[in-house]
Amino acid sequence: MTLVQHLIELRNRLIKASIALLITTALSFAFATYLVDIFAVPIGGRQELQAIDVTENMGVFMRVSLISGVVLAMPVIVYQVLMFMVPGLTREERRYLWFVVPGASILFLVGVLFAYFVMLPVAVPFLTSFLNIPTVPRPSTYFGFVTRLMFWIGLSFETPLILAFLARLGIVTPQMLKKNRKYAIVGIAAIAAAITPTVDPVNMLLVMAPLMVLYEFGVLLSRFTYRQRTGGQRE
Length: 235
Description:
Blueprint: H1 3-28, H2 32-39, H3 56-85, H4 91-95, H5 97-129, H6 139-156, H7 159-168, H8 174-179, H9 181-195, H10 201-225
Helix pairs in contact: 1-3, 2-3, 3-5, 3-6, 5-6, 7-10, 9-10
């Protein structure tokens, strides 16, 4: 494909993913208020927040609807990304997308739930009680913090499936993943430091531990999915 054809393909994939996200975000309007109540539980409920700007509450409603839309649209988004990145898949390899796409969506959801049930109950009390200074968070900052944390944790939980799929394509090997484990640990530490909402080591380890387990799980999966790349005919 020429550069122009690649750009057209990228545009078409982005349009399809955007349409899916637009639809799921619109559907999320119906239950966004309930999600706001759920997301506010770690802070003690909506009554613990104080809005300053006139449009702040509306912005929170839209942000929560968007993160819900991303979760719901994840199967379509993952499919469009994979079809753009690996357009030369054989017919047999395309069948693996039926496992990769729902698997990636489930792992993303598991990551979101991990952030909500494990990370937030530890991070929120630490942040709001630090230095014993009374804190009355704004809805925009609190929900921005919550949705960013859940999104990036959810995205990082895709690691084992990505490694398994790359191994299936012959791009990486189980031996390569094991050999570069020390570099993976450094990368995981850097990712954990970027994602972690606080600077204390406890929260950082809460992020690092599952990511390291997920990496090892990806290495294990790669042993079953790995197939050496051949120069055969593509379909």
